[in-house]
Design goal:
heterodimer; A: mainly alpha; B: mainly alpha; globular
């Protein structure tokens, strides 16, 4: 067999997972609808005063994104675990970390990217100003990959456990708090006339840090779960 | 004669050692608690600013410090167990977790009692309070993950990985929470008492040592139960007096 470059392998895994996701479009839509629904519940709960809604918009969107990304985590490895593909990945000669990274990227494209794209519409419902909207989208673009990557660690640790869905939220949500703080903080900064660059840069730093470490940690977690 | 440094790293030998150590640490904890309480309530003077309510710090401060230290110790034991595959290290990590969670909870609870008369609110979203709450969540995650995996070896290793990821994340969480709060406002009342009364310092130190001794005694007692449970099929457990009777 021809030796495959790591990048080609990465693309292969991403393409495969995206194809599988496209065959089951309902799963993708569920996450998106959940996100929209949670965000829309807040005005019903706290009242329709626009001043208050404008203030809390970024926090609401971020918390909803956090919850929505938890929703699809259990599916990240479950199907591959059930049909034995994951076992094949573990014993493959290629780096497991790269395979895992491919799955993370695909997961983000399926469950994170749609949230980023729909966020401006939700922001308009909360009467956010255009500069704040732009920063919200930029923050989500930098931050949601971290949610997918940290979530993958939790999903790998809880693979095949009873009540894994609730457990994975319990493990991953506290670890995601910095993303929430900087993401919502960036919008807050714009609203109070400050430069959001510091918050966005820290978000980017967390993203890079997660990109370096989480694929490897997830690979280790998978080995622990599968032995 | 060469000393065998690893003699007590086997559960069978450590079980006996822990049994011998527990009474000493328990007695020391009791004596230090009584002494600390006495100094704290009768010797330490009333604070000029905070009145009598400040005395809650004699349990609040040691509990907070211990909750943070114990997380690091737990993560270190868990990492040892993961890297060197030593059973006892993982058992120690499991034994420490509930005590750490307890101290985090005590710290939050007493903090609320102190905050009500001082700040006029049971809870404020202060950086330290919030990071302590997140620490409690991390403890609960560790305990929950360990409890939901039936195979103890897999549970040890999965929880160890989580503890390591958590301890890497703790400084990031701490600073993010700190900056998040300072963006809004600083804490309304700051603890200005750098020139603390000697008796207050003594009471604090006594209570701090008491909490340490309590934590060690309880962790050792818990690790003995874990050892018995995990090694129940082995011969040396069958030969123990307390098991045969």
């Amino acid at each position: 067999m021809k030796k495959m470059s790591l990048f080609a392998l990465l693309l292969l895994v991403i393409r495969r997972d995206l194809l599988l996701a496209m065959r089951r479009r309902a799963d993708v839509l569920t996450t998106l609808v959940f996100f929209v629904m949670v965000v829309s519940l807040f005005p019903l709960g706290v009242g329709p005063e626009m001043d208050m809604l404008r203030k809390m918009a970024s926090g609401v969107v971020w918390v909803a994104a956090l919850l929505a990304s938890m929703l699809s985590l259990t599916r990240l490895f479950a199907a591959d675990y059930a049909d034995g593909t994951l076992e094949q990945m573990l014993i493959a000669p290629q780096s497991l970390s790269v395979l895992v990274l491919g799955k993370m990227v695909a997961h983000w494209m399926v469950s994170g990217l749609p949230l980023v794209l729909i966020a401006p519409v939700l922001g308009l419902q909360f009467d956010m100003a255009p500069p704040a909207l732009a920063v919200l989208v930029a923050g989500l673009l930098l931050g949601t990959p971290v949610l997918s990557m940290l979530g993958a660690v939790g999903a790998a640790l809880t693979l095949g456990l009873r009540g894994g869905g609730v457990l994975v939220s319990l493990l991953v949500l506290p670890l995601c708090i910095p993303v929430l703080i900087f993401g919502a903080g960036a919008v807050e900064a714009v609203n109070s006339g400050l430069n959001p660059a510091a918050n966005l840069e820290l978000l980017g730093a967390i993203s890079v840090l997660a990109l370096v470490f989480t694929p490897w940690v997830t690979a280790q977690a998978l080995r622990i779960s599968m032995e | 004669m060469a000393i065998n440094w690893f003699k007590y790293s086997a559960p069978s030998t450590f079980y006996g050692l822990a049994g011998k150590l527990i009474p000493w640490f328990a007695l020391a904890a009791l004596a230090l608690f009584v002494a600390g309480m006495y100094v704290g309530f009768y010797v330490a003077p009333t604070d000029a600013v905070q009145g009598e309510a400040y005395r809650i710090m004699f349990i609040h401060v040691p509990a907070s410090i211990l909750s943070m230290f114990l997380y690091l110790i737990m993560a270190a034991y868990a990492a040892l167990g993961l890297i060197f595959n030593t059973r006892l290290s993982s058992m120690m990590a499991t034994a420490i977790a509930p005590t750490g969670a307890l101290f985090a909870f005590i710290s939050l609870w007493t903090g609320a009692f102190w905050g009500k008369p001082m700040w006029g609110a049971w809870w404020v979203w202060d950086a330290r309070l919030t990071s302590e709450l997140i620490l409690l969540f991390l403890y609960l995650g560790f305990i929950a993950l360990h409890a939901s995996i039936d195979d103890p070896r897999r549970a040890d290793r999965a929880a160890a990985l989580l503890a390591i990821v958590g301890s890497v994340n703790v400084p990031i969480i701490y600073f993010s929470v700190k900056w998040w709060n300072t963006l809004h406002q600083g804490s309304t009342i700051k603890f200005s008492g750098t020139s603390m009364h000697v008796a207050m310092q003594q009471a604090l130190l006594l209570m701090f040592l008491a909490c340490w001794c309590y934590a060690i005694a309880v962790a050792l007692a818990r690790v003995r139960s874990i050892i018995l449970e995990r090694e129940r099929a082995t011969q040396w457990v069958g030969e123990l007096k307390e098991v045969q009777s």
